[in-house]
Amino acid sequence: MMNTMIGFGATMITPSIFKRMTDQKVTVLHASPGRLRLQCDKWKNVPTSTNLQMAFRKVAIVQRSSASPITGSLLLEFTTPTLTQEQFDTIVQYAVEVSAATYQELPSSLETVLKNTVSTVDHTLKRQSAGSLDLDAILSVALLFGGISKLPVNPAFGASMLYWAYSLITNKSTK
Questions:
Q1: What b-and-e string marks burial along 148-157, b requiring 16 or more CB atoms within 10 Å of the CB?
Q2: Distance between CA 42 and CA 22 in Å, rounded?
Q3: What is residue 22's predicted lDDT score, i.e. its pLDDT?
Q4: What is residue 15's predicted lDDT score, i.e. its pLDDT?
Q5: Phi, psi of 38 (to 5 degrees)
Q6: Three-state DSSP string of 58-100
Q7: Which residues 6+ apart lie within 8 Å of 115 measured at CB?
Q8: Rounded CA gap, 14 and 6, in Å?
Q9: pLDDT given for residue 17 in this prediction
Q10: Domains in the chain, please, with CATH?
Q11: What is the pLDDT of residues 50-67, one digit of tens each?
């Protein structure tokens, strides 16, 4: 009875583990006695590689760990020459969990693209206008006109737009 319940639980949990593994596309690059090299494209950043390296230094059977943010690989050297299937599965699952926990520390790719786009537009405006215009100035003017025109129709929204313009002009953060 107990084995059936454990087996049923494993069949419920295992697909979610493998789903995360396939989402991250973890591959075994090299395996030899006492060594294992895993690779994942989502590990190609400093926070993830640092977290993986530090996390595996705390694992009892891991003698040494090394992670590369350039290649997205994780090299593990073990205290024993062989691993059981269960140990191997646990190690890969742990790597997936550690890297997934690191996602919160990383800027989203969309955020990075948006910041780069805004910065490029701002520099282009300054260069083309010989320093007369920038994105903040144009946005402030648009917010001033929008706020003034919306004030009679929707005073709360108009006042908000005027405040945003004021904040941009005076470089005060609204956070």
A1: eebeeeeeee
A2: 12
A3: 47
A4: 52
A5: -105, 155
A6: CCCCEEEEEEECCCCEEEEEECCCCCCHHHHHHHHHHHHHHHH
A7: none
A8: 12
A9: 47
A10: 2-105 (3.30.70), 110-170 (no CATH)
A11: 999 999 999 999 999 999
